[in-house]
Amino acid sequence: MIVAERKPLNEIVQSLAGRKRVLVLGCGGCVAVCCSGGEKQAELLGEQLKLAAQVACKAASGGEEAARGGTAAPGGKVEITVDCITRQCDREFFANMKHDLKDFDVVLSTACGVGVGYMTALYPEKVILPALNTTFYGANVAPGQWQEFCHGCGDCVLAWTGGVCPIARCSKSLINGACGGTNHGKCEVSKDMDCAWYLIYKRLKELGRLEDLRKMRPARQWSKDRGKGVRRLTHEELMQDTEVQK
Amino acid sequence: MTEPHVETPATGPVSKLQAELDSGKFVFTGEIGPAKGTNVEKCLHEAEEYLKHTVTAVNVTDIQTAVMRTGSLSVSHMLTDRGIEPVYQMVTRDRNRLGLQSDLLSAYCLGVRNVLALTGDHVSMGDHPDAKPVYDLDSVGLLEAMSTLERGSDMGSDAKGNPNVLDGVPRFFKGCAVTPCTEEVEPQIIKLEKKVQAGAQFVQTQAVYDPEAFERFMEKIAHIKVPVLVGIVMLKNAGMARYMNSSVPGVFVPESIIQRLVKASKDDKQKVSIDICGELIQKMKHCCQGAHLMTLGWDHCVPAIIQAAGLA
Ligand code: SF4
């Protein structure tokens, strides 16, 4: 899954400066699973924004407007509305929004960057802002903990690395074995981080496949990893619609 | 100022370092680190004063520990101008394959022949932790790139997919590093085998303070037929020795050495440090082909270390 974390509230508030009608749009996909941008987190963010607006308003007008119950910010009232859809990376789910985008001057998306970018492409007349920092492809390794396992390099090596990805999990994405920084199984970058090549060595040894480590690995084709720009996946048999969705 | 460089013959040693290692002589190399700033005179002066007549070649570190400073290529070239043979250290952290190959050609044009291929400390360990780490190639890939250039081609291809052809072909004496006294040597050995397969012709090791562990390592790599220069890093005090034990991967300083530094009086520290280096070399010289001396600024100690090793 895609793992993301909430941006600091201040940064979000700053990005909303001058906006009056804000739709906070949650996403029920990966970011709901990693508890950063699902319905609950979108609602929480909505409440925090209302509070922040009240505080800003109090500071600006001695508290009168906030006392009347409205949410406001310098320059006038701010309306915060919260909604959530199943996923923001599929066109069909946007039909399920309970609100009309026309009623808002900005959407604050708590989806990953895919959701924000895709929504921007679908609704070019709207400003879509991110509430999260999208961080990595990972798994839930322990309660409350997610860890990176894949980098999406476009040329999977796991078949010969014992299922441990050196592209994502070696700090230097090395491909021929450990660097001189490997230290009692940990990476030179941090004592809290396993050395991926130590894990690979251990695993291959366990499997009786050290030959896989001995084999020379030629320089990577980074062209498959962003080197040629935006990547696409095409399944011709599924392309009934000639209009390729943006 | 630059003297015209003698053409390197198509066969035979390309450098003094290679020739001396070929001859079976026990070889010393030294090391300097360029300044952070343009004032490179100091390190050049030290090299001239203390290394020129004592060691065969002088390594020039490449943005060591990821702390930004003057580059190793320019300082390597300046050494050749002063009649000192450099070992141009090259890390894969800061340049992609275009930059690395281009710098290798530049190095050759500037008279640099010995190149040491390293991965390089991660950017997060240096003074620009927000820099983008490159690592397009690893050290094995860099050695392969050198070997490819020596075959007259490069890592790319022309529009038809045919290998590129170089107009003028370099020759290098290609080196690599290894950590011999790490707790898990098998992966180190496997990687060393790959480096040699990729073209490495000599090895300079990480610091060694445990001659027995080093000897065991040398026995394990007896099948790898390239000269090994054992790494000797001067211990300036007991604190540094303890720091190395706790923080430098694959380095183990025995307590007996630490105690010698603890007991040494302030005026005596340098002498004790020199003696430790000399003794280490004496104990290991029978099982390796040379020593790489890293004095960390105490370059003036190099002649005394060689003397203490009984090899002056
Ligand atoms: S210590 Fe291990 S994980 Fe860290 S950069 Fe080196 S090989 Fe990669």
Explain what you see.
The complex is a heterodimer of chains A (about 250) and B (about 300). Chain A is of the alpha/beta class and about 250 residues long. Chain A is built from eight helices and eleven strands. Chain A has a four-stranded parallel beta sheet, sandwiched between helices. In chain A, strands 1-8-9 form a three-stranded antiparallel beta sheet. A two-stranded antiparallel ribbon of chain A has the order 3-4. In chain A, a hairpin with a 2-residue loop joins strand 8 and strand 9. With about 300 residues, chain B is an alpha/beta fold. Chain B has a domain of about 150 residues: TIM Barrel (Alpha-Beta Barrel), CATH 3.20.20. Chain B has an eight-stranded parallel beta barrel with strand order 1-2-3-4-5-6-7-8, surrounded by six helices. In chain B, helix 4 links the parallel strand 3 and strand 4. In chain B, helix 4 packs across helix 5 and helix 10 crosses helix 11. The two termini of chain B are about 30 Å apart. The interface between A and B is medium-sized, with 30 and 37 residues. Bound molecules: iron/sulfur cluster. The site of iron/sulfur cluster has 14 residues of chain A, from helix 7. Iron/sulfur cluster binds next to helix 7 of chain A.
Provide the fold topology:
The complex is a heterodimer of chains A (246) and B (312).
Chain A: E1 2-6, H1 9-15, E2 21-27, H2 30-33, H3 39-61, H4 64-67, E3 72-73, E4 76-77, E5 79-85, E6 106-109, H5 113-122, E7 128-130, E8 132-142, E9 145-150, H6 166-169, E10 186-187, E11 190-194, H7 196-206, H8 211-214
Parallel strand pairs in A: 2-5, 2-6, 6-7
Antiparallel strand pairs in A: 1-8, 3-4, 8-9, 10-11
Chain B: H1 16-23, E1 27-32, H2 41-51, E2 57-60, H3 72-81, E3 86-91, H4 97-109, E4 114-118, H5 139-150, E5 173-178, H6 185-197, E6 202-207, H7 211-220, E7 228-233, H8 238-247, H9 255-263, H10 269-284, E8 290-294, H11 302-308
